[in-house]
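Same chain as my last thread, 125 residues:
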Amino acid sequence: MSQLKAAFEGIASTLGADPQAPTTQFGSVIDRVQFDKVMAFIDAGKKDTEVLVGGVEHKKHGHYIAPTLFINPDEHSSILQEEIFGPVLCAKSFKTEEEALKMANNTQYGLAGMLLTVKHWGLGD
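reply #2:
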């Protein structure tokens, strides 16, 4: 988690760069409407879930949101149950493959999903 947090902080430090510069890798959300939707998800998530990093508006010209990392949200939380289409990631731990499969199948939306394990990130076995 510390390495993921550091990566998110690094991304946040580059927000607001010239969007036309070839070196710019992260931009703002598309418009104020989407900004408000993403921030509403973040604000709802903050009420019952730990925020490891981010969760705030990045004060630059445009609609920038600092990349946000939530830790172990409740299985019914909107930040886990719905696609946010913004810079938000939920990390939820599990102990068994069965538990991971149950979490993966416990949503009505199937637009996108992935499972990244500690081993995937090169952080251990």
